[in-house]
Amino acid sequence: MIEIKQLSKKYKGTDIFSVSDLDLCISEKDIFGLLGPNGAGKTTLISLLCSLIKPTSGSFVINGLTYKKNKNQLKQLIGIVPQEYALYPTLTAFENLMYFGSMYGLKGNKLKLKIKAALQTLGLSQFSNKKINTFSGGMKRRINLIASILHNPKVLFLDEPTVGVDVQSKNVIINYLKELNEKGTTIIYTSHHLNEAEAFCTKVAIIDHGRIITQGPPKSLISDQKNANNLEDVFLALTGHALRDHA
Ligand SMILES: Nc1ncnc2c1ncn2[C@@H]1O[C@H](COP(=O)(O)OP(=O)(O)OP(=O)(O)O)[C@@H](O)[C@H]1O
């Protein structure tokens, strides 16, 4: 269970809050989607929850643990799949995964077997000894995902895990995440693919200007919104059609 209370973040040198007084509860069984236009605050919220950045104010608890009191336990409890590839291009897939596993204190046969099983499930067994710089975007996304789950996290945060991948890779990734969730991992993910989120998530929150403007199961949000046939209709009705370009 994740409980977020009055969480706010204002980056140094800026005068706006990227996350503003945000309250949210995510249950252990959820596949929770954080949706919102560009610049809404999704990555900032995930970065706060992964303790990659510090809140300006407010707090959160993940499965009873807080970063201040339980830093090491929390690190073992969560997995992070960042938006950017966090892989070493000149190492092979297997070497990369051995390295990431060792960062969590894993080693030996146990780690090797875990890597082999994940590579198999994600369709990458035959590329195990190929260098990452020869991989397609979809293959790198799948390796990025494996790197984050080797320590069996109870809570997995993913920032746009299906961006830039083909339909085949996307299906493999989504099915794998569903499997992890069925085995007891809470999934929290950001995406701009609203059809995907509608089918995949048990709950979503639509975020804009650092605040949650609505949340709930996709079907409830659709039925509650006048003239909405899908999550995209809800999203546009609540966030508007204006472009969010800024520099
Ligand atoms: N390191 C930073 N320093 C200053 N401002 C930042 C920083 N990172 C993000 N921001 C600002 O915080 C706001 C929220 O950004 P964030 O990346 O969290 O949004 P997002 O919803 O993830 O967007 P996207 O969908 O484009 O990834 C934006 O206005 C952004 O410009």
UniProtKB/TrEMBL annotation:
Top-level taxon in the UniProt lineage: Bacteria
Residues of the ABC transporter domain: 2-234
GO molecular function term, any single one: kinase activity
Keyword annotations from UniProtKB, A to Z: ATP-binding, Kinase, Nucleotide-binding, Transferase
Pfam families in UniProt: ABC_tran
Protein known as: ABC transporter ATP-binding protein
Annotated source species: Flavivirga amylovorans
